[in-house]
Amino acid sequence: MAVYAIGDLQGCYDPFRELLDEIDFDPGSDTLWLCGDLVNRGPKSLKTLRFVRSLGNSAITVLGNHDLHLLALWAGAVSRGKRFDSLQKLLDASDADELCDWLRNQPLAHYDARLDTLLVHAGTHPDWGVKKTLARAAEVEAELRGENFAALLAKMYGNAPTAWSGSLSGYKRLRFIVNCLTRMRFVTRDNRLNFTRSGSPWRPLKNVRPWFDAEDRQTGDTRIVFGHWSQLGLVILPELICLDTGCVWGRQLTAVRLDKKTPRVIQVAGQAT
Q1: What CA–CA distance (Å, rounded) separates 130 from 117?
Q2: What digits encode the pLDDT tens for the residues 72-95?
């Protein structure tokens, strides 16, 4: 019974199926952890979403920022534009409502106590431990699964507030949580979210650092699996696994087996461009 984590799919259905063949995935006994961003940019978002949904309980996915944007488009919370043409076929599909309703019921964070491993799309705030991360994620999940989910999807855009406080409330609080779990890369020295920096974290930077390098990060020794940061690339450390290896940019799609003492890495070529 294997547990595999796979990086951002972004509508790259063919590499995804090739990777499942490479790992000899058996949905009857194995489990997939998907890092979010199932859709957008790639050529087969509709086919990808249909297939992931068909896997049932053998696939666990967390929501990424592209997944949330799909939901916002579907709900009419934002207007459609040419930038997201790759989602048009999905939005026009006869089963779009069924697929998007399924998607909005997926979590923003998943934790397995046996593996002591936390799955998120982008990261988790340095001040939050595992329990707080799951609790904060649950706040957004409850809104997404409720009757007024479109209001949240309309209000989630924006970079403010940048600092976490337990006194945050309403959509400001929910937006901060969404930004942490689905968009964050860099934080300042006092753990404020920073969206002005982009690119690789490997070059020296003043006053900001990757969220996972923050001092006194409260997740401690818990292993965190995430995607979202293609310029970070593949990182395999005891406490950290980054799996966005740029499949949609023609690089690789990566799977890592999580239930072995030494993680096994399997890759296939990314989406042909």
Answers
A1: 9
A2: 999 999 887 666 678 999 999 999
